[in-house]
Amino acid sequence: MSKKKRLKKIAEAIAEMGAGRFFYHIEKSSKKDNIDALISGINMMAEEIGEALLHEGYVNSNETIKHIVLMNFIIDLDGKIKAVNQQACDILFYTCGEIIEKSFDLFLNEKSAHKWERLCNMLKNKKMVDTSITLTFKTKSGLLVPSACYINKLGGEKKEVESILVTVVKHSKRQVELEEYLISKENNKKESSQKNNPFTLVDNRKKVKLSSTDVLKIREVRDFFMDNLEKDFPPIKELALEFGTNAFKIKYGFKELYGVSVFRFIRNERLRKAKMLVQGSNISFKKITQLCGFKSVPSFSSTFKSEFGYTPKELRKKFSAENP
Predict the structure, then answer these.
(1) Disulfide-capable partner of 153 in 65, 129, 141, 187 (CB 3.0 to 4.6 Å)?
(2) Is 309 within the bounds of a domain?
């Protein structure tokens, strides 16, 4: 693929992100140049922002959302698409007529097409199956949509009515925080019911309400962290004075807006930046340690492995092997 086409795909992906759609990724080439490094960064940024927005919308909504359905396909046993939802057409940039009766694997990248073929061969010999698989879809313009898919083989009295239902969902990776939120929400309901019951003890603790000014201050503090990850940060009390708020509101606000403590937020962002540099650059691990605010290379390596399951060296080697 030419440099011009690769840059065009980057522009398309950024345009989609600007419109609030963060599930698109860009396919990497085998060139390992600055454009590929930029693509790695954009892909990771899209994933992280998408996760953050999903989580923030979740904890601030009245609805309980753990998985968002993006696309639905009904496929016959020959692999042809018989029905599709409108959102799938919108995401893939095809009309319904361009998808119906086409082979499902035409809308997957090469690696996923092979995975789908193996799965289809297995499904043909089964009566009814419920399973899951990760597939990467390819849009009409060449952008990628990595997706978790639930696969259900639907049975029927006759062989010809059997079909496969593919449901594409967006998961939140922050499942622990989401579960904690549900528990706290349930506890709040119990506390509220106890207050209305004269025969129960009353808990006088009240949930703090953050004003729009408080939220702006907390976001300013977040931006300060994001822009200075390589530095040692002052105590929360000092930081609060500098930003014209108080330590409690910063601590409470981070938990409320981002689902994590201040310490965990900084740690997560340092690791996110480090992972991007490990995968998308040839910068030494000593330099990455400095750029991401870790105290020493051994400390960085240990924390990195605890989070991602690989040391920085192992992950870079694995990433290079998968993206020759």
Answers:
(1) 129
(2) no
